[in-house]
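Dear colleague,

Thank you for sharing your sequence with our group. We've completed the structure prediction you requested, and as agreed, I am returning the results in plain text so they can be pasted directly into your records. Please verify that the sequence below matches your submission; if there's any discrepancy, let me know and we will rerun it promptly.
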Amino acid sequence: ISSTADATSGTDVQEVSVQLGVGELVIIVPEGVTARINLAIGAGEVIAEQPGGTGSSTTLYSGGAGTEGYLIGTGSPDVIVNLSVGLGSVRLQSATAPSIIRDGAS
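Please find the predicted structure tokens below.
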């Protein structure tokens, strides 16, 4: 999600699907946007990073095949991101949110 995507206009929830075979994916959620991340992963890790990608990071998931759900921001999601990752890592960053929580809805 980039700051050029206008996820705050209108009342419809924007939905984005991303497939990654092998590699690293960085998702940056802009200020004022709440995102739900639905993830299916073959093997790899999910890392939450401090705003701007600086400072400490927390590993949210590491291992083999699984499905995970995360909520970035507060309130109802403006954007739903459906991710499918074969092998790799996903880095979740928020412009302002102090934490990224496991949503459980995937």
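Summary note from our side: The first strand starts at residue 14 and ends at 29.

Kind regards,
the structure core
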